[in-house]
Amino acid sequence: MKMNYREITPEDVAAIFDVRIKTWHNPNGAEELERMGITYDSVRQMMMTTHRGWLGESGGAVVGFVMGNKQTGEMWVVAVLKEFENRGIGKSLMRLVEDWLVREGCGELFLTTDPDESFRAVGFYRHLGWEDWKMEDGDRFMKKRSEQVVADQKAARCESKAS
Ligand SMILES: CC(C)(COP(=O)(O)OP(=O)(O)OC[C@H]1O[C@@H](n2cnc3c(N)ncnc32)[C@H](O)[C@@H]1OP(=O)(O)O)[C@@H](O)C(=O)NCCC(=O)NCCS
């Protein structure tokens, strides 16, 4: 499977919403995003100011994406379509956003996710070096220091040289 990774542009917003809604943990993703004030326009606005993101496409179709916020150091969202899971796409996307946030000067990155331990993303984040931080307002907060991101980059470079 040939994957292409590139930066998200305003024209991609509909396609990334489609991926996020398909990967939502219940069928009400579209309504929940709207209730949270997350719309095509609000995301385009964020992309002009604080946020940046990357997507992965296969055969011209978007199969996963990631976005972060340089102002706060938040890894805001990552999602990969079910049928494309377990192929390293989520990890590649996380590397892109983590590297960018560190380049922007964020010393500590954070994310929020489901409190439920059995949620796939929780194990995924831990596997990528994210640590549990706190539970607040019903969300699990996790964090990762910039030094850890740089160490991961080095290890990945060594891995790719060795293979
Ligand atoms: C979470 C998600 C992004 C993971 O994407 P993915 O492409 O399947 O993940 P990858 O294949 O890149 O996995 C990377 C590594 O994490 C490991 N991993 C993945 N899930 C894991 C888990 N639950 N526990 C332990 N390790 C895990 C993989 O085995 C792989 O290990 P390796 O690099 O040593 O081979 C994807 O499942 C998803 O989009 N889920 C639905 C949306 C979602 O929950 N988003 C997060 C919202 S908070």
What does this entry look like structurally?
With 163 residues, this protein is of the alpha+beta class. It has a single domain (4-162), classed as Aminopeptidase. It has six helices and seven strands. The chain has helices at residues 13-22, 29-35, 40-49, 89-103, 120-127, 146-162; strands spanning 4-7, 51-58, 61-69, 74-80, 108-113, 131-136, 139-145. The strands form two sheets. It has a four-stranded antiparallel β-sheet, sandwiched between helices. Strands 5-7-6 form a three-stranded antiparallel β-sheet. Strand 3 and strand 4 (74-80) form a beta hairpin. Helix 4 (89-103) packs across helix 6 (146-162). The two termini are 18 Å apart. The mean pLDDT is 96. It binds coenzyme A.
Q: Which CATH class applies here?
A: Alpha Beta
Share of residues in helices: 40-55%
Global morphology? globular
| CATH fold descriptor | Aminopeptidase
Q: How many separate domains?
A: 1
Largest beta-sheet characterization: 4 strands, antiparallel
Order of helices and strands: EHHHEEEHEHEEH
Q: Which hetero compounds are present in the coordinates? A: coenzyme A
- Specify Rg, calculated over alpha carbons: 15 Å
Short description:
The protein is α+β, with helices and mostly antiparallel strands and 163 residues long. It is built from six helices and seven strands, in the order βαααβββαβαββα.
SSE layout and pairings?
Layout: E1 4-7, H1 13-22, H2 29-35, H3 40-49, E2 51-58, E3 61-69, E4 74-80, H4 89-103, E5 108-113, H5 120-127, E6 131-136, E7 139-145, H6 146-162
Antiparallel strand pairs: 1-2, 2-3, 3-4, 5-7, 6-7
Helix pairs in contact: 4-6
The structure holds coenzyme A.
Residues 23, 78-80, 85-91, 113, 120-121, 123-124, 127 line the site of coenzyme A.
